[in-house]
Design goal:
Blueprint: E1 4-6, H1 14-20, E2 27-35, H2 37-46, H3 50-63, E3 70-73, E4 76-79, E5 83-90, E6 96-102, H4 107-124, E7 134-140, E8 161-164, E9 168-170, E10 173-183, H5 189-205
Parallel strand pairs: 5-7, 7-8
Antiparallel strand pairs: 1-4, 2-10, 3-4, 5-6, 8-10, 9-10
Helix pairs in contact: 3-5
């Protein structure tokens, strides 16, 4: 189903829409360090890409926060029925391309789409976009460790966005610093905090209830 414009006054974001929709800088950025030790273990044990696993956890956490299904676009508020996680792909020409991966609650289904679509984008050097999905942007800068990053406030791309670098190992734990940018019309700080807590919870829970990663 295509995203549909909704009346902000009929949502819980009515006041936020009035306050932040026309603000010069409505974007807010949180910084957080998360424990990705379990993701590293699952990645090595099952030969799954670390970035794919983290993207799935992001999608899973977002799917549990209803505010992620509402997004301000060109002065209006839209409701979406589906989520996708965007990842940046290094293409065959050595440049970068953008790839939207539809979120699936089943990890192995998400993995199949992730592997297929990122390969398609890398080979074709063409972006793969899912305009009917509420897309969560990500950027992994894996060649260095970073403390955080503030995304660009373009006024066009209002989607939530996460950035991270290379994880760091300390005394048997793997820690990753991430930044999470969101539009204040879409959610408040409390919603963003809930999302980040759910992200850590989903990271910790992968592989604990299912020995084969997925039921």
């Amino acid at each position: 189903m295509k995203p549909r414009a909704i009346n902000p006054k009929e949502t819980t974001r009515s006041e936020a829409f009035e306050l932040w929709m026309s603000a010069p800088n409505p974007m807010v950025t949180f910084f957080k360090q998360i424990n990705v030790t379990n993701l590293v273990r699952i990645s090595r044990k099952y030969k799954l890409k670390f970035n794919m696993l983290l993207c799935w956890c992001i999608g899973k956490a977002a799917s549990e926060v209803k505010e992620f299904y509402i997004l301000p676009v060109q002065g209006k508020l839209y409701r979406y029925d589906k989520l996708a996680v965007n990842t940046i792909v290094r293409n065959k020409n050595g440049e970068v391309s953008s790839c939207d991966v539809p979120f699936s609650k089943k990890l192995l289904d998400f993995n199949k789409d992730y592997m297929r679509l990122t390969k398609q984008v890398a080979d074709s050097c063409m972006n793969y976009d899912l305009p009917e999905y509420m897309v969560i942007g990500t950027s992994a800068i894996v060649n260095t460790e970073i403390d955080g990053a503030v995304g660009m406030n373009s006024g066009i791309f209002n989607n939530p966005f996460l950035i991270w670098g290379r994880y760091q190992s300390h005394f048997g734990r793997n820690m990753l610093k991430i930044s999470f940018q969101f539009h204040h019309t879409q959610m408040d700080g409390a919603h963003a905090g809930t999302f980040l807590e759910l992200l850590q919870k989903n990271i910790d829970n992968i592989g604990k209830k299912q020995r084969k990663v997925e039921q």
